[in-house]
Amino acid sequence: MKHEQQIVSIRGLKKSYGDVHVLQGIDLDVAPGEKLSIIGPSGSGKSTLLRILMTLERPTKGSIEIEGEPLWDVRLNGRSAPADSKHLRRMRSKVGMVFQHFNLFPHMTVLRNVTSAPMHVLRISREEAEDRARELLAKVGLDAKVSAYPSELSGGQKQRVAIARALAMYPKIMLFDEVTSALDPELVGEVLGVLRDLAHRTDMTMILVTHEIRFAREISDRVVFIDHGRIVEQGPPDRIFADPTETRTREFLKAVLEA
Fold this sequence. Notes:
Elements: E1 8-17, E2 20-30, E3 35-39, H1 46-53, E4 61-66, E5 69-70, E6 73-76, E7 79-82, H2 85-92, E8 95-98, H3 110-120, H4 126-139, H5 155-167, E9 173-177, H6 185-201, E10 205-209, H7 213-219, E11 222-227, E12 230-235, H8 237-242, H9 247-258
Helix pairs in contact: 3-4, 3-5, 4-5, 5-6
């Protein structure tokens, strides 16, 4: 995929918690419209990378640009300075994220869960927000659940609401952090079906942290394998999964597929 400008550009990204080095120098570009899957063992830094992109964690070192604009810094008189909350809010509006554990508001109906942020953050009218929400809920197969509360939904349904809620903010980039890992096995397929539709039918940039290897192979333009906070290997899914170059990648995939 050749594009003149990357929608995400990461250079020298490091994140430490005291003496624990979670990310140890990540360099990564993501093209507009690319579907990128990030795989790797637990604790390798995959989720931390997404949380930094979502401005939920501040990097220890390194830079991130979204659409050519620094995420964590602003340029003032030719110098770089830490971004203020206004800049972070504006940059955050370009990115949507779906987490492992849904994070729905239990006291709100499905419809209100999806319309709340667009109305309060984007200042969209209730009518427009509700029209958009109903359209998105229909896309994820939940148009019959608009008046239900989260406690009345299965885990798979909650996760599909969470996907609709993130899409309702018109993000340019969608981040998915192990969105099936908290689900019962029989519910995984319905959520993967929604992601598959998004991948095949939209030009949205998608970055997915996933342990669903076969799914990653099916929908990804590129797969990145991270271990101990470093990118070990990356490339087209057919090569990564069928003929990985690095021994560590082979070991990981063998362990995952045998499990």
